[in-house]
Amino acid sequence: MDYSITIKHLDVVDSTNRYLRDEADNLWVGGKEIVAVMARHQTAGRGQRGNVWQSQGGYNLLMSILVRPGNSLEAKNQFLLSQAVAVSVHTAMKCYGIETSLKWPNDIYVGNRKLAGILVELDYSGAFVEQAIIGIGLNVNQTGFSPMDRVPVSIKMLLGKDIPVEDVMRDVLCNFNHYYAEMRWGDKDAIAAEYKKLLLGFGQQCEYADSCGTFIAVMEDVEPTGQRVLRREDGTSSRYMFKEVEMLFRL
Q1: DSSP per residue over 226-246, as a string?
Q2: What sections of the chain are H helices per DSSP?
Q3: Ranges of each domain in the chain
Q4: Are strands 107-110 and 213-222 parallel, antiparallel or unpaired?
Q5: pLDDT digits (tens, 9 = 90+) for 113-130
Q6: What is the pLDDT of residue 149?
Q7: From CA 22, how far away is CA 62, in angstroms rounded?
Q8: Which residues of the chain have pLDDT under 70?
Q9: Closest among 138, 208, 225 to 175, alpha carbons compared
Q10: ∠ CA(130), CA(92), CA(26), 5° rounding?
């Protein structure tokens, strides 16, 4: 099943996620199924943990997607949407010969370098996800970055040439269209399995840090709620939501 996608282009906006939240009802009229807003430049783009997403105007993909999955996505399974988005971006990058991996919950990496960030904001109605706004910041043609906690990389840095940002947008949306339909009506388990296969550290012994300090553990599972299940060296298992634990990168 293919959904109709409406795309709105903006020149400058503070945040595409904020814009979509303010304009959601106006943009959704007329039986829309997926609404995307793409900006040339953001003045206050947001990332995970309240971080600012920095981007050089006109060089990168700055996009937010609005969906209203109705009764097809239960709140207890909400993380399936994040998984579908992350796998969509990974699959889109394969079109350019770029092999990516995922860092929980849904950042896109090439090796130890961050290519894209995803921010999913959910609204609930009872036991279901009523609305989701999905922000995607993907480095396309930018090659100079200010100091960050993660070493950034762009498609141009990997391929040595400019790529039209509009092409990247279309590839990401095409793949999201497919995986969103699968999430709603298809093989949900296949999306979760693909996500885990791409997830950095899954099934491997890694170093983590939580509020009590650092420890060694193996990531055994990612539950439908998004909780990460870690088995420590002493055999005990702990479940962590986002921001409660961090896998330590050694660059």
Answers
A1: SPEEEEETTS-EEEE-TTS-E
A2: 16-28, 79-94, 155-159, 165-185, 188-198
A3: 5-198, 205-247
A4: unpaired
A5: 999 999 999 999 999 999
A6: 58
A7: 17
A8: 1, 45-54, 148-149, 249-251
A9: 138
A10: 35
Give dist(CA 177, CA 84) in Å, integer. Answer: 10
Superfamily for domain range 5-198: Bira Bifunctional Protein; Domain 2 (3.30.930.10)
DSSP labels for 96-141? TT---EEETTTEEEETTEEEEEEEEEEEEETTEEEEEEEEEEE-SS
**Strand runs (DSSP E) across 20-77, as ranges?**
34-42, 61-67
Contacts of 50 (CB under 8 A, 6+ apart): none
At position 36, the amino acid (one-letter code) is: A
Q: Which fold would CATH assign to domain 205-247?
A: SH3 type barrels. (2.30.30)
Contact 113, 122 (CB under 8 A): no
Quote the DSSP letter at residue 248. P
| Each residue's pLDDT tens digit, 55-99 | 777 899 999 999 999 999 999 999 999 999 999 999 999 999 999
Calculate the alpha carbon distances from 83 to 7, 102, 188, 205, 234 in Å.
22, 10, 10, 22, 30
The CA distance from 109 to 127, in Å, is 33
Residue 251: per-residue pLDDT = 41
